[in-house]
Structures are given as C-alpha cells and as structure tokens.
Amino acid sequence: MADNAKRIPRHVAVVMDGNGRWANKRLMPRIVGHKYGVDALIGCINTCADRGIEYLTVFAFSSENWKRPEDEVSGLMNLVLTAVAKYLARLSDIGVRIQIIGDRAAVSEKVRAAWEHAERVTAGNKRITLSVAFNYGGRWDIVQACQRAVADGARAEQIDEALLSKYMALAYAPDPDLFIRTGGEVRISNFLLWQVAYSELYFTDCLWPDFDAAEIDKALADYAARDRRYGGVKTDISASGQKITLAPDA
Ligand code: FPP
Asked: With a threshold of 0.85, does the pTM exceed it?
C-alpha cells in the first residue's frame, strides 16, 4: 500500500468523451448525455481528491467544438451556468480550487463571468486544483505562450522550453502524469500537446457518464504498473541483487 501510494499520479488530465453516444444509446438528446457528464465530472473530482491527486485537468470544450450544431453549443454553454450554480459551493466546501484554461475572448460575457466567479470563490482552496479547459486547444496554448513571451520582450535566442513553460496555460501545475481518454477513441485531439510529452496514456471504451470511481481506480492501477523512463534506460535489480540495465527506450 505504501508503495502504491507513491504511485498515485500528482496530475491527471482527462478527455471526457462519449456523452453523445451515451445519450443516443438511451434514445435521449445529446445534451442529456452532457448533463450526466457533469455529474460524472463531480464524482471524478471527489474520487481524485480522495485518492490524493493534486491536479485534475478536464477537456470541457475544445476550440473545435464550436463546429457542433448550434443547439448543442448553446446547451453546453447553459450547462456551465447551471453547473456552476448547482455545484460551486459543494466543490469549494471540499477544498477544490477551480482554474479555467483556454481562450476567454470568444466566450460569452455570461459564461466568462460564471467561470471567473468560480475561480474567485475557490482561489484559496488547497486540496485539489481542477483546471477546466474551455475553448482550449493545445496548439492555441503553444501559440499564446510564444506571443506572450515575445510581448514581454523575449528575444529568439532566449526562447527555450523552460521559458515557454512559464507562459503555458498550466504554468502553475506539474505536467500531467496520467492522460485518460474515455469513449473508445485513441487520440489526443489537440488537448495539452505541450504538457503530455511524457504522460502515461490510458484509453478506455467506457463512455464518460459511466466513468465512476471503479473505472478511475482501474486507470490508477494501470498507471501504478507503468515504468516511467522519460527517454532514459530501464534499470532493474537482477536476482543476485546486482543493478542491470535493460533496453533503451523513448
Ligand atoms: C465529448 O463527448 C464531450 C464534450 C465535448 C463535452 C464534455 C463536457 C462535459 C462532460 C460536461 C460539461 C462540463 C462543464 C464543466 C459544464 P461527445 O459529445 O463528443 O460524445 P460522443 O463522442 O459520444 O459524441
């Protein structure tokens, strides 16, 4: 158990995919799937906090999601307003700090105000940081980081990974240790491109509204069994107790 506790990821990033299919299977409109998706998210925040995860980052609305039918987009925007009204106090009570990452400029004043209210109310909380990626894209993030670095006077020769990291949307968090995508698709979909360079990837067919504590524990157990090498070499202890070096790996 003590060994297992060491293998709890500090930061988990999640693509919450499958709400639409979950609803379709039940002959319900897609937006109903998103509503159940919010409930799954609240459960996920609770479970992650209970397991000692310090940062949870979720993809709630991508830069590309504007291409969805208008009623689904407006439904998702309304869901932000109702979710903040319904859950903010509860989340704050259990020590959740909420941060929004993404391009706020294109989001309506009402939605922006709701998110900023959530950030303000939870600013002092310390148990877990929930970062909601909203109107977010990984490529947008890299571009905005470069633009802000240059606007701050950085010259070409000063731009390196350490400098750009300070301008990325998640500058306040360590890189995700574990990247989870539900819903059966096996791709990153322009989520945290910069930050997932060395994340362990976990894909599951489970649709997001069904992603409960048992499913989270499966993902955490899978993560705990991974051997993270960050481009180095795998080392192991041989039967004689001698340290041996195995194959190099990327
Ligand atoms: C992907 O499922 C899910 C989304 C685009 C939205 C995720 C949003 C939520 C879980 C709730 C909203 C969150 C907040 C904080 C208001 P999909 O629609 O692509 O599902 P499909 O692949 O089955 O069609």
From this structure: yes
